Amino acid sequence: MTGYHILLLALLTYSSDGYKFLVYSPIFGYSHTNFMGILADTLTEAGHNVTMLMPIMDVEQVNKTGVKLTTNIIKVPVDERIAPIMKHQAAQISRMWTLQPTISGLLEMKKNMTMWFTCQCERVFQDEALMKQLEEEHFDVGIAEGFGVCGFGVFKIAKIKTTLATLASVHMDPISEAIGEPVTPSYVPGGMSAAGDQMNIFARLKNAIGIIFTRALFPTVFVSEVNSFKEKFGSEFSDWQQLLADASYLFTNSNPYLDYPRPMLHKTVPIGGITVPNDSKKNKLPAEWDAVLNERNTTVLVSFGSVAKAMYMPEDYKESLLKVFESMPETTFIFKYEEKDSKIADHLPNVHLSTWLPQNALLADPRLTAFVTHGGLGSVTELAHQGKPAVLIPIFGDQPRNAKMLAKHGGAIDLTKYDLETPEKLRESLRIILSDTSYSKNAKRLAEMLRKQPISPKELFLRHTEFAAKFGRLPNLDPYGRQLSFIQYYLIDIAKVVCVVSVVFYGLPRTIIINVAAIANSLILACYALFIVKVRKVSISDKNLRHIYRSLILTSLSVVLGWVATIFIGIAFDYSTMNFTGTEIALISGLPVNLSIATNFFVFYFVSEQYRNDFNKYLYLRVPKHMTKTKSIRAQTIMRQRSTRTTTI
């Protein structure tokens, strides 16, 4: 068989076994688009038929699809209503370097984000021709990021029954709650928290407030999107929580060996690291960068990502960085600076400016010594996999959390953006990670763990997506806990019952309890006495009924006798010098009651002829007749004497 025939056979095999995937990936943030693009390419590489549906939300990134292998791409034009929002968004991002979070600023961001996502969502599903086209494709699986729920609504319209949710971040608390996953602010930092997992009371409070804010921000966007669907397709359209919970799996961009440990459901699959290429060919450096790395023994890469660009950095921050570079002439600095033909570092021979960098390839090169970065999840993940020590300077969003997360492993130092106001802190941090070999050792150990983890992120993703494509929705992974109310979930109803019982039995004053017990006992004794008096005056001709009343009288008298004896025993214990435990006192005090009730056995045996005959019959006992006869005669004599005074019982 020729090579051509082998290739043709392989293609036919892929065609017959492959599934059809629709990946919904809005173009609005490179980290999100890149993550979804890599997932699409992973499926394409595995032989599946993948189509990308990409609504354009940021016209400046229209060509940044994140895909290299997937060719079926459907782009939806930007909605004209969001153009003003994009202008505001760009201005807002440029101020991220100095912006302090305020209530008014957060509310403004919430309003803009809601309108931004809702308008573009409406632009997608109101295209009836597009919706019909998607429905006719008969996709097996739909994949969308949970940053919005529009994709899941589109899947519902296109009659795609099996859906998968993704997150380009480590996790998002509202989505965790929607699928029934525990949210634990006491030791798990929220998605945008600046705290680690070891928090004091104030840090836990701040973390909880941050989680509450996240719950308020994103569900507002989700609700707005779903309401748009309901206006067009009816009120029966699923709520956002149900759309997310119906997803067979949730793929997150976290890694259990890198992220903080937290409780997760079986349907949550962490695939952090899938965006990091391990192929040495993909990490090959261009010749110009190879020459730069050969200049000095120590080389530091400085990059603050693609959102909060270094060119928008305050002037005093830039001056601080340049002073640090100047104070370390033995080190080469590669600085990502987006302004073309900038002259700010012309006076520094050890500094190389560039508007773009092959970041992962540089990090993979052993000649690169350290990394100064903003703490974006993509950069942190690449850094962790390549094993380089770092100084992390988070600017906004989830970056503070990512910085703390990596620093916890001992291979990085985290600062704040305000530490750039003076050069000393950055200079000292660089000096520490370059001179203290423990940072490099810890970073390399983490990288080795990530490389040798039992199942690679790529394999996890492929296995679970193909499993979902075969079996569809997986209700057996859907916990019933998400159906419970807040009161039921946290056992507040049980706590109420326990509190009431505790108050009744332990919270009342001692005198009230004693008085209630005394009154109750007095009423019981009065009932006993009244019963005996009344029964003696009743005429009863039926023999069996007379036996019943006699039994009741004897039982009442024996219980009263035992109770009185118990009281005297208790008094004796009060004046006793011997030490008894509460259990021992209860054991001894209960003995008179038990003995008194037990005597009824003997009394009934000698008083009731029917009881005695039945007892002898079933237990095969033989009691001397003269004993029972004597006792019976005595009992009859007593009864005749009573009947002469009152009515016969």
From TrEMBL:
It is found in: Membrane. It catalyses: glucuronate acceptor + UDP-alpha-D-glucuronate = acceptor beta-D-glucuronoside + UDP + H(+). It is a single-pass membrane protein. One of its GO terms (molecular function) is glucuronosyltransferase activity. PROSITE patterns: UDPGT. Its EC number is 2.4.1.17. InterPro entries: GPCR_Rhodpsn, UDP-glycosyltransferase, UDP_glucos_trans, UDP_glycos_trans_CS. One of its GO terms (cellular component) is membrane. The chain crosses the membrane at residues 512-531, 552-573, 585-607. Keywords: Glycosyltransferase, Membrane, Signal, Transferase, Transmembrane, Transmembrane helix. SUPFAM superfamilies: UDP-Glycosyltransferase/glycogen phosphorylase. It is an enzyme of class 2 (transferase). It holds the Pfam family UDPGT. Belongs to the UDP-glycosyltransferase family. This is glucuronosyltransferase. It comes from Cylicocyclus nassatus (Nematode worm).
